[in-house]
Amino acid sequence: MTYTEAVSWLNALIDYEKAPDFRYPEVFKLDRVRALMSALGNPERAWPSIHIAGTKGKGTVATFVDALLRAHGCRTGLYTSPHLVSFRERVRIDGACVSEDAFADSMSRLVPHAERWQTEHPDERLSFFDVLTASGFDIFRAAAVEWGVVEVGMGGRLDATNVITPRVAQITPIALEHTKYLGDTIEAIAREKAGVMKPGVPVLIQRQLPEVESVLLEHAAEVGAIPYRIDDAMSITDSRDGATWTLRVIAPSDTHPALYEHLRLGALGDHQRRNFAAAVVVLHLAGVPLDSDRVRNVAATTTIPGRLQLIPETPPILLDVAHTPDSARMLVDAIRTRFPGRRTTLVFSCAQDKRVAEIAKILAPIAERVVLVPIPGIRAMSMEDMTAAWKAVHPFVTASTSTRDAIENARDTTPNHGLIIVTGSFVLVGAAMEALGINPT
Questions:
Q1: CA of 276: how far to CAs of 39, 272, 375, 386, in Å?
Q2: Cβ pair 37, 134 in contact under 8 A
Q3: Whole-angstrom distance, CA of residue 357 vs CA of residue 367
Q4: Dist CA 327 CA 316 (whole Å)
Q5: 381 shares a domain with 280
Q6: Which one of 247, 282, 301 terminates a domain?
C-alpha cells in the first residue's frame, strides 16, 4: 500500500470530528479499537504511556511532557488531536511528524484486519479516529519508542485512546465542552473524562472547579486509582524581580522535594507555567529522573504550534486555537500582559457547537476591528450566526470570503505596530498557517 492509497482509505472512513451530528455514546465503542489492537498483536502494550485527558491545555501539556522526555534521552511517541494542517502531525516520533513511509507501512499491516472486522460487523462502522489511533500505536511499537504520550480525543471513557493502561494518567482543567455529546453539566463531563482512570494507576488532577474535583476524586476511589491534586504535588514561586520562577515538586514523596529554579517559559501566556509544571510533576509520578538544567532548557525553548504562536511579521500575527470561553479569557489575559495598548484586528471563525456569543463578548474588548471568515467543513458555524453574535457586542465587524483574504484585509487596516490575532478554531488556525506558508510539522 502506498502513502496515497493509505490516505485515501483512511479518509473514506466516517470522521466524527467533522460530523455535525452523531449519537454518543452509541457510536463510540472501544470494542472496535480493542479488536484492531488484538489483531496487530497489542502494540499499545509495547511501551509505557502517559495518558492526558481534560478540556484546557491537554495538548500543550502532552507536548511539554514529550519535550521533557526527549531532552532526557528518551525515544518518544506523541499522539495528539486534532491537527492543524496535516494529520501526520497527530503521530510524532521523537518530535517529528510520522513519515509517509512509516504511515503507509502501518496501514498495510492494519487495513486487512480492519476490512475483515468491518465485513464481520457490517453494522459497526470503523471511524477515522479508531483507525488512526490503532495505526499510531502500531507506529510507536515499530519505532521502538521508550515512552508514549497520548492525548485523549474527546471525553475519555469511550475515547479510542482509552485502550491503554498508562503508567500515569493526567486530567487537565475541565470546562463545559461538547455538551451535546458528553453531557450538559460540568459534572457529567467530568465523569466522562474520569473514565481514563485505572486501578492502581496514579492520576494527576490539575486545578478544577470544586464540583469537578469532587467527581474526579469520587471516581478515583471507585476504581482504585491513586489521585494526586496538583496543588498538593507542587508549588510555584516567583523570583524577586518576577523575571524567573521556581518549581518545587513534592509528589510522589514529600521527603525529598525537587527544586527547579530560574525557569523562564518560551511559550506565551502565564497559564502555561501551570501546564509546564504539571508536565514536570507527571514525570515525577512516572518515576522519570529529571535534570534541572535540561528542564530549564525545555521550559525556555518549547513553543506550541497554534497556541499563542507569534509570527514576527509587520504587523505581527498571533495564532491561537482558543475555542471555549475559558481559553478565550486566557487569550485576553495574554494580550493584555504581552501586548498592552496594541491596536488589534481579530480574525475569527468557529464551529457551530461553540458558545460564540459568550466567546465574542470576552474577546470584543481587545479588538479594534473584527474580520469574520468561513471555514471548511459541515461543522462550521454559518456566517449569519457568527455575524449576529459579534454585531451584538462589537461595532466594527466585517466579513471576508477566505482566510487568506481575511489576513490581507487585516494587514491593510492594522498599523505596523499593531497586532493581528487569528483565533476561534483549529481549522481556522490551520488555514492561516497554510496562507502564511508556515509548516507546523
A1: 37, 6, 31, 34
A2: yes
A3: 15
A4: 21
A5: no
A6: 301
In the β-sheet with 96-97, what is the strand arrangement from edge to edge?
96-97, 91-93, 76-79, 147-151, 49-53, 168-171, 202-205, 226-229
- Residues 212-238 have pLDDT tens digits of 999 999 999 999 999 999 999 999 999
Alpha-carbon distances, residue 423 vs 83, 317, 437 (angstroms) = 15, 11, 17
**CATH number of domain containing 387:** 3.90.190.20
Phi, psi of 426 (to 5 degrees): -60, -40
Spatial distance between the Cα atoms of 92 and 80, rounded to a whole number of angstroms: 9
> In Å, what is the CA distance from 368 to each residue of 365, 407, 417?
8, 15, 14
Q: State the residue range of the domain holding 211.
A: 3-301
Question: Residues 47, 163: one domain?
Answer: yes
Is residue 403 packed enough to be buried (19+ CB in 10 Å), middle (13-18) or exposed (0-12)?
Answer: buried
Encode pLDDT of 161-206 as tens digits: 999 999 999 999 998 776 566 767 999 999 999 999 999 999 999 9
What's the structural domain count of the chain?
2
Residue 218, domain CATH: 3.40.1190.10
Could you tell me which of 298, 411, 303, 304 has the C-alpha nearest to residue 347?
411
C-alpha span between 150 and 162 (Å, rounded): 9
Write out the three cell numbers for 347: 480574525
Task: Tell me which DSSP letter residue 87 carries.
Answer: G
3-state SS, residue 192: helix
69, 95 Cβ separation under 8 angstroms: no
Residue 441 placed within a domain: no
Q: What is the DSSP string of 209-244?
A: -HHHHHHHHHHHHHHT-EEEEHHHHEEEEE-TTSS-
